[in-house]
Amino acid sequence: MHDLSSRLPRGILRIISGRLIRALISLILFQIILFSLIQALPSDIVELRAVVGAHGEGLEEFQMLDSTESAWQQFITWVKGFYQGELGKSTSLGMPVVDILKERLPRTLLLLLPGTVAGFLLGIWLGKRIAWQRRGWLEFVATLGGTAFYTSFPPWLAFVMVNAFGLSLGWFPPEKIIDPMKWFRLDVTLNEVIVKLFLTAGAAGLAYLVINWLTRGQTRLRARLRAVGGVLIIILAVIPWMTSDYGPLAVDILYHLALPLITLTLLSFGETMLVMRATMVEAMEADHVPAARAKGVRDSQVRDRHVARIAILPVLARFVLHLPLVIIGSFILERVFYWDGMGQILIQAAIDNDLPVLIGVLSVVGVGILLAHIIFDLLNLWLDPRQRKVEGAEVVIRGEI
Q1: Helices 97-132 and 342-352 sit at what angle, rounded to 10 degrees?
Q2: Which of helix, strand or coil describes residue 31?
Q3: CB 256 within 8 A of CB 154
């Protein structure tokens, strides 16, 4: 027991530290490539000085534009600032890039995280259903719809959604993140409400995971207990908002979020569903599936525990690999819906040739993608026993020697 307790933290730290070291090396290589590409962009230094002239020291704060230093020295200077939390000043807005990120990042995450998670979960759920019940009306409709949305051009689909549900039917606001009239003269910021929404969602998600863990041994009543627990969590999460002054403001944000969130979900679920269907069909031919059925295991348990658990691994890998494309799609939607997030400021920075904002925002996006890869590696170790043996992490995950 003592040997096991001493090896558990060491094994966990070894795996996580290895992933972090590789992620740090990848980030540095990404920044070198990004810096080189941005340096190669054609720019007129006289025009840039005219742009930032109204903002005082905007140009001088950004060392990449200092022609007295070599490109390598400029990169070293910027990297030191990046890891110290100093990204220079925007040449078009005249404010520190860090302040821009603090202002815009929560708004981007409010659209990106729920839309990505909703698209992934919807794709997983539909992929399981149509693979298990093949040649039905659900498979035809889901495959047709998923393929159509997956191959859609994001600005075109957003344009259709705005015209159909925003302008013609009037169900949702066609643009912006809030209604300014509802926030007029209120001593509260948009990001404060967004952070509170994230905290509420995180606490509710953690509580639901605890309920799932507590009910894992209840074979018959598990589904009902989890459903009741989920409803109670939603009620307990909503009541504090209804009794506070933040409630109407949160409703206003979520009302404006609905249309871009639905659009992003439709764009992202199709690929996950199609890949999940293909991997499920392949996993259903494994030898352990008829063995589980011969033991009297219910079909739903065979599907979820014996087939989907294996089939989801390639889906996770493909999802992580295509995460940059999802982020790009989210940024494009921000521009179409006038969602004041990082995507809109990034596109505007490209138009204005605002190099500090470009490299700062893209570096933060790179950090997010690398963190997603680390999380995927840990999930892969948890879901696949073969990977645990390869990584030497069997003791970490299962507590076995």
Answers
A1: 120
A2: helix
A3: no
Name which of 324, 366, 360, 322 is nearest 25 in CA terms: 366
- End-to-end CA separation in angstroms for the chain: 10
Q: What is the separation of C-alpha 13 from the centre of its chain, rounded to a whole number of angstroms? A: 25
Beta-carbon neighbour count of residue 51 at 10 Å? Answer: 18
What is the C-alpha separation between 89 and 35, in angstroms, rounded? Answer: 16
pLDDT in tens, 300-328: 677 777 677 777 878 887 887 778 878 88
The HSE-up count of residue 114 (CA atoms within 13 Å, CB side) is 19
In the structure encoding, which two tokens stand for residue 67, read together? 């022609």
How many whole angstroms from its chain centre is CA 213?
25
Angstrom distance (rounded) from CA 124 to CA 270: 10
- The pLDDT confidence band at residue 198, using thresholds 50, 70 and 90, is very high
| Strand ranges, E, within 194-246 | none
262 vs 398: CA distance, rounded Å: 39
CA 370 vs. chain centroid, Å, equals: 12
Task: Say if CB 306 and CB 159 are below 8 A apart.
Answer: no
Helices (H), 68-151: 71-83, 97-132, 137-150
Structure tokens at 308: 């989907």
Nearest by Cα to 46 from 67, 61, 69: 67
Within 13 Å, how many C-alpha atoms sit on residue 265's CB side?
Answer: 16
78-87 CB contacts, 8 Å cutoff, 24+ apart: 78/35, 78/359, 79/28, 79/31, 82/31, 82/360, 82/363, 87/356, 87/359, 87/360, 87/363
Task: Give the pair of three-digit tokens for residue 146.
Answer: 């998923």
pTM: 0.77
Hey, how many other C-beta atoms are within 10 angstroms of the C-beta on 229? Answer: 17
Spatial distance between the Cα atoms of 184 and 218, rounded to a whole number of angstroms: 51
Q: Which residues of 34-50 are buried (b: 16+ CB within 10 A; e: fewer)?
A: bbeebeeeeeeeeebee
Q: Say which residue, 51 or 103, is predicted with more confidence.
A: 103
Copy the structure tokens of residue 277. 């269907």
Structure tokens at 278: 């293909």
- CB within 8 Å of 353: residues ≥ 6 apart: 41, 43, 48, 51, 91
How many whole angstroms separate alpha carbon 198 and alpha carbon 194?
A: 6
